[in-house]
Design a protein that fits this description.
The structure holds two protein chains of two kinds. By secondary structure, chain A is mainly alpha-helical. Helices cover about 75% and strands about 0% of the residues of chain A. Chain A has helices spanning about 5-30, 45-70, 70-90, 95-110, 115-125, 130, 145-165. The longest helix of chain A has 28 residues, at about 5-30. Chain B has helices spanning about 1-30, 95, 135-140, 165-180, 235-240, 370-380, 380-385, 440-450, 455-465; strands spanning about 30-40, 40-45, 50-60, 60-65, 65-75, 75-85, 90, 110-120, 125-135, 145-155, 190-200, 205, 210-235, 245-265, 270-290, 300-320, 325-350, 355-360, 360-365, 385-395, 400-405, 410-415, 420-425, 475, 480-490, 495-505, 530, 530-535. The longest helix of chain B is centred in the first third of the chain and has 27 residues, at about 1-30. Chain B is of the alpha+beta class. Chain B has a 22-stranded mixed sheet that branches. In chain B, strands 1, 2, 3, 4, 7 and 10 form a six-stranded mixed sheet that branches. The chains are: A mainly alpha, B alpha+beta. Chains A and B meet through α1, α2 and α7 of A and α1, β1, β2, β3 and β4 of B.
C-alpha cells in the first residue's frame, strides 16, 4: 500500500472509532444498561462530538498535504483554520458563513487525488457538511460520505496496485 | 499473500465506513435540547424517539447500583411511583399518565417535577442524595418525543449531625416563644397554617449485610403566603411621628417567570433542581390590596404574596440487624404548587397570632399573623442577611426632602396633605442587587417542630441543615413585572419627623443554564430572588425591626 492508501485507511479507522465510542455512549445513556461515567453522555461530551467534526478534517487534510505536497490542499486548510480562529475570537455571524464556505473549499481541494469516480463524487458531496449543518446539526453526518469515499478509494487503489503487479497475460 | 491482505483491508475499510455512517445517522436522531446542573448531578433533555425518564446513579463518580426511589410531585404533595435497586432506571412517560389529570388545567402554564432519591448501603451505614427532574405535564399528555436523562451522584459519607448545637437551638427557640407570651389581644385575624403529615413505608431491601427499611414522612404545608413584595414599619415610626392614618398598598401588573428552587440535605450542596416553574401574572394592572388605619397595629406590615403549597419530604432508612435503628435520612424542601393566575395581599401585625393546624388539629400558636413576622421574629432574617440603607425622608413645616444612599432610578416624593412618600419600583427600577429570599420552609419546620417534641431527630436534622447554609430559595425573574408599593402617612400640617428606609439584600446564589426549547419551555436567563422588601424605622436605617 502506498502512503495515500494508509491515509485513507487511517481516515476510515478514526471516524469509525470516534463514532463507535459515541454509539456506545448513546446506547448506554439512553437505555437501562449500566453506564460508566466515561460513557455517560453529558453536555460536554455531546458538544465535543461536533467540535471534533470541526477539527478532525483540517488535521487529516494537513497530513494529506504533507504526504502529497499539493499547495491547493494547504491553501484550503489554512483558509479554513483562519476562518475558524477568527470566528472563535470575534463570534461574528459572517465569519460563521466564512467557515462554512472555506470548509467546502478545503474539502474539495484534494479531489484531484481521487481516481475512483464514485469516491470522488461522495467526497465532493461531503464538502457540504458544514454549510448544511446551518439548517440542522444532523447534516454534520454528511461528512461520513467522505469516510465511505475514503474506503472506496482505498479499495480502488489496492485493486489498481494488484493489477499493476499481475503479469500482463 | 500480501496482496490478499491488502484487499482484505480495503473490504474491511468499506465495512467500517458503512458502519460509522450508520452510527452517525443513529446518533443524530437524538439531540440535546437543554440541561441544568444541580449540586450533585445533571438533568439533560434530548429529542428522542423513546419518550421517558432515565435515571443513572453514581457513588463517588463511579457507576454502581443504588436503591432509586422516585416520587411524582402533585399539587397537594408527592407520591412514590417507583423503587428499584439498579444503576439505571427507565420510566416511560406512559407510567406518569394516570397522574396527569391533576395537572390537566395547568399543563401549558406550569412545569412540575419528579423527586429522585438514590441510596447506597454499606453495612450499618447508608448514604443518600436527592434530585429534582423538571418536566412539563404537556409532554406526558401529548407523549412528546423527549427523553430526560438524570445523573445523580452520592458521596459515601454520612451527613453529620451536631447534637450539642441542636439542643442549644431547641432551647433558644422555646425561650423565644415563652418570652413572647402572653399572646397579644389581636387574635381576631389569625394567620392559619394547615399542615398535613403522613408516614409511609416503602418496600424493604435486603443484602448480605442486613435488611433495610426505607420510609418517608411527608409534611405538606398548605396555603403558605410567600411574599413577593413587602413593606414593614417598626412601632417607633408610628409612636414618635404621631400619624393619624398610615396606609400601605401595592399595585402589581405584568408577568413573572417563577422558579421554585428545591433544596436538600445532600452532602455536595443544597441545590437539587427546580421543583416548580410557571409563567404567572396578569394581563392588566390591578391593585392587589389597599390597607388603611394600620397605625392601630403593632409593627404594621403589608405584602403581596403567592399562595403556595410547600412540601417537606423526609426520607429515612432503617437498618435491622438484631435491633432496628434509623441510619440515614435525606430531607427535600420544595414548593409543589402555586397558582399562576392568582396573587393576593395581606396586612400583618406582630401582636397577632398564627395558628398551626396539623392534620386538622390546632397544634401550635405563634406570635405574629403574617409570613414576614414569622421570618423576622423567629429567624431574625434582618440580622442574618444584612440590609442595605436605602435613604431617609425628612419633613418639617410643609416641606419634605428625601435623601438616598443607594441610587434608585426613580424616587418620587412630595409633600401634600397628607404627606406621601412614593417609592416606585418597576422592573427597570429595581435596585441593582436583589433582595432576600425568605428561608420560609425552614422557618416553618423550626416552628412546627416545637409541636413534636418527641421527635428530636427531625428537628435536629433540620437545624443542622439550616446552619450548613441550606437555605431555601424561591427565585423569580422579574421579566415584565411592575410593582408599586405605597406608603401613605397622614400627619399634622406643622408636624416634623423622619423615617429611615432600608431594603434587604442577598446576592444571587446561582444561575441556571438555559434549558428546553422555546416551544415547550423555560428560558432561565438569570434568577433574581423573590422577595423585595422595605423596612421603615425611626431611629436608624439598619433594617433591624426594632420597637
Amino acid at each position: 500500500m502506498n502512503k495515500l492508501s494508509y491515509f485513507f485507511l487511517s481516515y476510515v479507522i478514526f471516524f469509525f472509532a470516534f463514532n463507535f465510542y459515541y454509539f456506545l455512549s448513546y446506547m448506554t445513556t439512553f437505555t437501562s444498561l449500566p453506564t460508566p461515567s466515561f460513557f455517560l453522555l453529558t453536555p460536554t461530551t455531546y458538544h465535543l462530538y461536533y467540535k471534533i467534526l470541526l477539527i478532525a478534517p483540517p488535521i487529516f487534510l494537513f497530513t494529506l498535504y504533507i504526504i502529497t505536497r499539493k499547495k491547493l490542499i494547504l491553501a484550503g486548510v489554512m483558509t479554513y483554520l483562519i476562518s475558524l480562529v477568527a470566528f472563535i475570537i470575534f463570534k461574528n455571524l459572517y465569519l460563521q458563513f466564512s467557515i462554512d464556505f472555506s470548509a467546502i473549499f478545503m474539502m474539495l481541494s484534494p479531489l484531484s487525488l481521487f481516481k475512483n469516480r464514485i469516491a470522488m463524487t461522495l467526497w465532493a458531496i461531503s464538502a457540504l457538511y458544514l454549510i448544511f449543518s446551518l439548517s440542522s446539526p444532523s447534516f454534520m453526518s454528511l461528512i461520513m460520505l467522505s469516510v465511505i469515499a475514503s474506503a472506496i478509494e482505498l479499495l480502488s487503489n489496492i485493486k489498481q496496485e494488484e493489477n499493476k503487479r499481475l503479469p500482463p497475460f | 499473500m500480501a496482496l490478499h491482505n491488502e484487499k482484505l483491508f480495503g473490504i474491511l475499510a468499506i465495512i467500517l465506513a458503512a458502519l460509522a455512517s450508520l452510527i452517525s445517522l443513529v446518533i443524530q436522531m437524538q439531540y440535546l435540547i437543554g440541561y441544568y446542573q444541580t449540586s450533585n448531578g445533571i438533568v439533560e433533555y434530548f429529542s428522542s424517539l423513546d419518550p421517558g425518564f432515565t435515571i443513572k446513579s453514581y457513588l463517588d463518580g463511579n457507576a454502581k447500583p443504588a436503591l432509586i426511589t422516585v416520587f411524582i410531585n402533585l399539587p397537594n404533595g408527592s407520591i412514590p411511583i417507583e423503587e428499584k435497586f439498579t444503576q439505571s432506571l427507565y420510566i416511560p412517560f406512559s407510567k406518569l399518565d394516570p397522574y396527569m389529570k391533576y395537572w390537566a388545567e395547568w399543563a401549558n402554564k406550569a412545569n412540575t417535577s419528579l423527586v429522585i432519591i438514590a441510596t447506597y448501603f454499606n453495612g450499618a451505614e447508608a448514604y443518600s442524595s436527592a434530585e429534582e427532574i423538571e418536566y412539563s405535564p404537556s409532554w406526558i399528555m401529548d407523549n412528546i418525543n423527549i427523553q430526560i436523562i438524570a445523573k445523580i451522584n452520592v458521596i459515601s459519607k454520612p451527613i453529620p449531625i451536631n447534637w450539642g448545637f441542636i439542643k442549644q437551638q431547641i432551647l433558644e427557640l422555646r425561650q423565644t416563644l415563652e418570652q413572647s407570651s402572653p399572646l397579644a389581644n389581636e387574635t381576631s385575624h389569625p394567620y392559619i397554617v394547615n399542615v398535613t403529615v403522613q408516614n409511609r413505608k416503602l418496600e424493604p431491601y435486603s443484602d448480605s449485610s442486613g435488611s433495610y427499611y426505607p420510609g418517608f414522612v411527608e409534611y405538606v404545608i398548605h396555603n403558605v403566603q410567600i411574599p413577593i413584595v413587602w413593606i414593614k414599619m417598626s412601632n417607633n415610626v408610628v409612636w414618635k411621628n404621631s400619624f393619624n392614618v398610615i396606609s400601605l398598598s401595592a399595585v402589581a401588573s405584568g408577568y413573572i417567570n417563577f422558579y421554585a428552587i428545591a433544596n436538600s440535605s445532600n452532602y455536595e450542596g443544597p441545590y437539587i433542581g427546580v421543583s416548580l416553574s410557571e409563567f404567572s401574572g396578569w394581563g392588566g394592572s390591578f391593585p392587589v390590596a389597599y390597607q388603611y388605619s394600620l397605625k392601630k397595629l403593632d409593627n404594621p406590615g403589608y405584602y403581596v404574596y403567592d399562595n403556595a403549597t410547600i412540601e417537606i419530604l423526609k426520607y429515612t432508612i432503617w437498618y435491622v440487624n438484631g435491633q432496628s435503628e434509623p441510619i440515614n435520612n435525606v430531607t427535600v424542601f420544595q414548593v409543589v404548587w402555586t397558582n399562576p393566575t392568582k396573587f393576593s395581599g395581606a396586612a400583618e401585625n406582630s401582636a397577632g397570632v398564627t395558628h398551626v393546624y396539623v392534620n386538622g388539629k390546632l397544634n401550635n400558636t405563634l406570635i405574629g399573623n403574617g409570613t414576614l413576622n414569622l421570618l423576622i421574629n423567629y429567624l431574625q432574617l434582618t440580622h442574618e442577611f444584612s440590609p442595605k440603607p436605602n435613604g431617609y425622608l425628612n419633613w418639617s413645616h410643609y416641606t419634605a426632602v428625601f435623601h438616598y444612599y443607594s441610587s434608585p432610578k426613580t424616587v418620587v416624593y412630595g409633600l401634600w396633605n397628607p404627606i406621601w412618600l412614593d417609592y416606585v419600583v418597576t422592573s427597570n427600577y429595581l435596585p441593582a442587587e436583589v433582595i432576600l429570599s425568605p428561608a420560609f420552609p425552614i422557618t416553618m419546620e423550626l416552628l412546627l417542630s416545637l409541636s413534636f417534641p418527641e421527635t428530636p431527630l427531625w428537628l435536629g436534622l433540620l437545624l443542622n441543615i439550616k446552619f450548613s447554609n441550606t437555605t431555601f430559595y424561591i427565585s423569580q425573574d422579574y421579566e415584565s413585572l411592575s410593582l408599586q408599593i405605597w406608603l401613605g402617612l397622614d400627619t399634622k400640617y406643622n408636624n416634623s419627623g423622619h423615617i429611615y428606609i432600608s431594603y434587604l439584600n442577598y446576592p444571587l446564589p446561582l444561575q441556571l443554564e438555559p434549558n428546553i426549547g422555546s416551544t415547550i419551555t423555560i428560558n432561565v436567563t438569570a434568577l433574581t430572588l423573590q422577595s423585595l422588601g422595605f423596612i421603615y424605622n425611626y431611629s436608624s436605617y439598619d433594617g433591624v425591626y426594632n420597637e
